[in-house]
TrEMBL record:
<comment type="subunit">
    <text>Homotetramer.</text>
</comment>
<comment type="function">
    <text>Bifunctional enzyme that catalyzes the epimerization of the S- and R-forms of NAD(P)HX and the dehydration of the S-form of NAD(P)HX at the expense of ADP, which is converted to AMP. This allows the repair of both epimers of NAD(P)HX, a damaged form of NAD(P)H that is a result of enzymatic or heat-dependent hydration.</text>
</comment>
<feature type="domain" description="YjeF C-terminal">
    <location>
        <begin position="219"/>
        <end position="484"/>
    </location>
</feature>
<dbReference type="InterPro" id="IPR030677">
    <property type="entry name" value="Nnr"/>
</dbReference>
<dbReference type="Pfam" id="PF03853">
    <property type="entry name" value="YjeF_N"/>
</dbReference>
<dbReference type="InterPro" id="IPR036652">
    <property type="entry name" value="YjeF_N_dom_sf"/>
</dbReference>
<feature type="binding site">
    <location>
        <position position="430"/>
    </location>
    <ligand>
        <name>(6S)-NADPHX</name>
    </ligand>
</feature>
<keyword id="KW-0547">Nucleotide-binding</keyword>
<feature type="binding site">
    <location>
        <position position="254"/>
    </location>
    <ligand>
        <name>(6S)-NADPHX</name>
    </ligand>
</feature>
<feature type="binding site">
    <location>
        <begin position="393"/>
        <end position="397"/>
    </location>
    <ligand>
        <name>AMP</name>
    </ligand>
</feature>
<feature type="binding site">
    <location>
        <position position="154"/>
    </location>
    <ligand>
        <name>(6S)-NADPHX</name>
    </ligand>
</feature>
<keyword id="KW-0479">Metal-binding</keyword>
<feature type="binding site">
    <location>
        <position position="429"/>
    </location>
    <ligand>
        <name>AMP</name>
    </ligand>
</feature>
<keyword id="KW-0521">NADP</keyword>
<feature type="domain" description="YjeF N-terminal">
    <location>
        <begin position="10"/>
        <end position="211"/>
    </location>
</feature>
<dbReference type="InterPro" id="IPR000631">
    <property type="entry name" value="CARKD"/>
</dbReference>
<feature type="binding site">
    <location>
        <position position="121"/>
    </location>
    <ligand>
        <name>K(+)</name>
    </ligand>
</feature>
Length: 488
């Protein structure tokens, strides 16, 4: 499990640790890890390699300078571009000079960068505020223009460490070497995309960090531990029956894809209620189909409602009928048009909402741009406002639960890291709904079901032959499942 902490938490942990260690120890640890990562990138010819450090006036610049000193001692030709010559970290600058490195003002930065093999971004770390200022934006842009790989120190400068938001110019890194703990912004787009590969350097912060992280990302082991497995005494009902109210005369395929996701999600049985039963049976004869209202379809342990439902009063009536059931309900796509926060908060069983950014914007009464630029705030707001687990789809899929436990009285938030833009294909969201629905029916807690579903869906999107389509993502699920949890 990857755990990320906000700046104020990281700073408190650093203070506690620093109080027990000789001055400069943490920066020395950070710089050693940073230098090792840079040296690896410069292999096999570190000797003579031109390295440019972009050095801001805080400790982030200090890390870059001490790391630059280590590289210079090993023979690299290191030049520090000091964005503020009076305020560069004095100890770091002395160390760099003592190791044979040079320092320059910002004026000649572009010429130096154009000839460099590597740029180290030590402009701002967790002390940065807003997008890069003019004087810092120029050198950052020069690295991108000349195609020189950038290693970001702690964070790509210009991104918001706590939220992943980017307000203005920012560095685009090939590698980010972060210290002590992941920061939430490294897991959330648009910042995540600017961080490139991320490497965590252990500076001994672990014991000082609180047990509740601000953002969590599952790894394969977390996913494997949650996968439902049939027991000796299992029958199809105990494994979980999922009800699906999806599809319409206009969108019959959504019913088929949602049912497929549910079957490949390990449901003991799938009941389909709606007008697309013929198509569903044709593709998946194992489905129990009916044409009446969902509440007349028979007992289920969870419902999925919404994909391809179409609009209008009939769709709204179907959603209301499903929400009246006292079992977990996942609402997706067209189902999201007719939900009411009061009604959802009054439900005694959990609700899961799975909007993409456009649907989330409508639910929050804001714009799609605002949702995409502030994903973390948006997903938490959705969860709190609707009293539901919210899964926000897109380039970073985030999952939030309502209620106390997290920062500012908000619930836990998870980021899914398995996704791929190849999943942006019609109907792949329907597969995700069915998959999460099956996991809900199997008895997983809603946050776990949503996070595990997103994890499996992302892996399946990667495993499906390129270019994937929703059906082939579904068919990749068994392979993903088997790789995580070999059959007994
Ligand atoms: N604490 C520890 O134990 C450890 C900390 N470590 C390291 O320290 C880093 C934190 O250092 P920090 O607190 O000095 O802040 P930092 O990230 O350098 O930024 C502040 C500077 O940025 C400037 N600036 C701000 N916004 C800007 C903008 N938009 N555009 C341009 N400039 C901007 C701001 O300028 P000012 O506003 O003061 O004029 C100020 O000079 C942390 O990320 C990690 O790398 C490690 O060594 C491990 C141990
Ligand atoms: N840029 C992207 N990177 C990663 N995943 C994406 C991206 N865009 C969309 N996805 C994923 O693709 C799926 C699309 O779902 P959705 O928008 O509901 O489409 P549909 O309604 O056609 O099924 C979601 O799982 C979403 O997270
Ligand atoms: K940085």
């Amino acid at each position: 499990m990857r755990t990320a902490y906000r700046v104020e938490t990281v700073r408190a942990a650093e203070r506690a640790l620093m109080a027990r260690l000789p001055a400069g120890t943490l920066m020395a640890r950070a710089a050693a890890g940073l230098a090792a990562a840079c040296a690896e990138l410069l292999r096999p010819r570190l000797y003579g390699a031109r390295v440019v450090l972009l050095v801001g006036s805080g400790d982030n610049g200090g890390d870059a300078l001490y790391a630059g000193a280590r590289l210079a001692r090993r023979g690299a030709a290191v030049t520090a571009v000091l964005l503020n010559e009076e305020r560069a970290h004095p100890g770091g600058l002395a160390a760099l000079r003592a190791a044979g490195g040079r320092a320059a003002g910002a004026a000649g930065a572009e010429r130096l960068i154009a000839r460099a093999r590597l740029v180290v971004d030590g402009i701002t770390g967790i002390g940065g505020r807003g997008g890069l200022r003019q004087d810092a934006a120029g050198p950052a842009a020069a690295a991108a223009e000349h195609g020189v790989p950038v290693v970001a120190v702690d964070l790509p400068s210009g991104v918001d460490a706590d939220t992943g938001e980017v307000h203005g110019a920012a560095v685009r890194a090939a590698l980010t070497v972060t210290f002590g703990a992941w920061k939430p912004g490294l897991l959330v787009d648009p910042a995540r995309a600017l961080a490139g590969e991320v490497r965590l350097v252990d500076i001994g912060l672990g014991p000082e960090l609180p047990p509740e992280p601000d953002l969590v990302a599952f790894d394969d082991a977390d996913a494997a531990a949650l996968l439902p497995r049939p027991e000796a005494e299992s029958d199809k009902y105990r494994r979980g029956v999922i009800g699906i109210a999806a599809g319409s005369a206009r969108y019959p395929g959504a019913a088929v894809l949602t049912v497929g996701g549910a079957l490949r999600g390990g449901a003991g049985a799938v009941r389909y209620a709606g007008p697309a039963g013929g198509g569903v049976i044709g593709r998946y004869p194992e489905t129990l189909v009916s044409e009446g209202r969902p509440s007349e379809a028979g007992r289920v342990q969870a419902w999925v409602v919404g994909p391809g439902l179409g609009g209008g009063p009939e769709a709204a009536a179907t959603v209301a009928d499903v929400l009246a059931a006292d079992v977990p309900v996942l609402v997706d796509a067209d189902g999201l048009h007719s939900i009411d926060p009061e009604r959802l908060r009054a439900r005694s069983a959990p609700t899961v909402l799975t909007p993409h950014a456009g649907e989330a914007a409508a639910l929050l009464g804001t714009s799609r741009d605002r949702v995409e630029s502030a994903r973390l705030a948006s997903v938490s707001e959705l969860a709190v406002r609707y009293g539901a687990v919210a899964l926000l789809k897109g380039s970073t899929t985030l999952i939030a639960e309502p209620g106390p436990g997290g920062p500012e009285g908000r619930g836990r938030v998870l980021a899914n890291t398995t996704g791929t833009p190849w999943l942006a294909t019609a109907g792949s969201g329907d597969v995700l709904s069915g998959l999460i629905g099956a996991l809900l029916a199997a008895g997983l807690a809603p946050l776990d079901a949503a996070a595990l579903g997103a994890h499996l869906h992302g892996l399946a999107g990667r495993a499906a032959p390129v270019p994937p389509m929703a059906s082939t993502v579904t068919e990749a699920l068994p392979g993903v499942w088997a790789a995580l949890s070999p059959r007994r």
